[in-house]
Fold this sequence. Notes:
Layout: H1 2-33, E1 37-41, H2 44-47, H3 60-65, H4 68-72, H5 87-101, E2 105-109, H6 112-115, E3 126-129, E4 135-139, H7 142-151, H8 154-169, E5 173-177, H9 190-198, H10 218-235, E6 241-243, H11 248-256, H12 261-264, H13 277-301, E7 314-320, E8 323-326, H14 331-354, E9 356-358, E10 364-366, E11 376-380, E12 384-393, E13 398-402, H15 430-442, E14 450-454, H16 465-481, E15 486-492, E16 511-513, E17 522-524, H17 526-537
Parallel strand pairs: 1-2, 1-15, 2-5, 5-6, 6-7, 7-11, 8-12, 11-14, 14-15
Antiparallel strand pairs: 3-4, 9-10, 12-13, 16-17
Amino acid sequence: MNSKKNKKIAVSLFLIISTAILSKCSEKNKEEKTKMIWGTAISGFQADMGPGVQPDENSDWWIWMHDEKNEKEGLVGKDKPENGPAFWKNYKTDIDLAKELGTNYFRYSIEWSRIFPEPTTDIKVEVVWTEDGYPAEIKITDETIRELEKKADENNLRKYREILEYARSKGLKILLTLNHFTLPKWIHDPIACRDWFELKEKENTKLCFGKPAGWLSTDTVIEFTKYSAFLAHKFGDIVDLWGPMNEPIVISTAGYLLGKIGALAGGGAFPPGAFDPDAFEKATENIIWALARSYDAIAQFDKKDADSDGKKAEVVLIYNIPYFEPASETEEDKKATEKAWDVQVFFILDAIVDGKLKNLQGQEKFFPSLKKRVDIIGINYYNRMKIKYLPVVPEKGIIFLPEFPACPTFSPSEKCPYGMSEGMLEIYPPGIYEVIKKINERYRESKLPILITENGIADSKDERRPEFIREHIKFVKKAIEEKIEVLGYFYWALIDNLEWNSGYSKRFGLIEVDYSSAERKRTPRKSFYVFKEIIENFK
């Protein structure tokens, strides 16, 4: 009798203890899932190369930055990527510092041209086209992956895995960007395209003289989908958070709409340096379809839950969104500002979130094969832009232009209460809150969370960066307190790197890189420790 009673008591105690343990585990898992993401970011082309690292000479940006004509015309700067911080050699030092900082994520980008230095165009895939000639489905099979494997650079694949696995060994999860502006030279010949756009008469010539035309070609959408599928297959066991493309609207705007304006302002030009609204529209459309098909490919081929959070893959649309405001209270400036939001932000976001593909005249068509091809909206926020009405190409809706310079002085003024950065961008922390709120309101029905995927400042003396970080995170917290789902914050950048045509003088890093030393010595700045303290004390 006592034996049975004791057994019942033992079973009851076991159930009570088990329930308590399971409850704690459940709470721990729940806490882990809702934990704030803190990260830093760098990109391959901007940071990988330097002393002791084999240069990647197979991208369009490499060719663009080494072109003699571009140098003479000021389209590129004097600094070159091969003189960079050599992240590929120093990655353990940098990742160790990222861990010391207290971050739990590391954002990094793969160079397409390092994975596939030679064309993959001969690997055929089936494409299902819409009646309008858009790729509604690109069928990637296991056989496609096997064929891609034969063409991939094994040494570079091994190096990328080494870097990513080291980050994971230090407790850092990965946000992996598949494309950060650059394209393989077999996808885009930037010089042939530049010269083609400079022709006054193009009617009797092939696009880019028949050379690889980059985002002007639908073939690039197909190749990017193959590339996305292959990387999801290769790295899905260590990556669950994917960013197919960094700042897609910057690629089409800077490459096909700004022409040489950037050079006049001292910032050079993106390849191929064209001013052609039709080309801008076409490139943007192709980028939209590439984003959608990349999403499908990642969902299909990332088959492992690397983070043990119940999700095999989530895709972030990493998007540059300034806070656009009218330069004045005139109706013209207000109308121009609305158009800036439409063209620079909603052109792509409306397509990828809601399936609404628009043209520059505002006409739209719904495509099911575009809708909901994103899981998280990533916001890269740097500045406020005051917009003035200027009928640049009114028939295409290009009636806006930001004021330049953004502020009368670098110091705070009545017009710019927080001043202006060394990158000539207005510092305006409240704008990050306004952008979060605007995006949340527009896509409320989709219930998409928001992630700050970049926020940073060019500050060579590190005098303004500490307060810059404090103020921006303060306004991110304000959005969170208003029940907007903001998953986290990435600072750009972990280390000083090549700021494209602006070179190495624009210092964005929490960690200073000494370019005069062969080993590219690293030194954490004061802002490094300020950010560390913010992470430790954030509630």
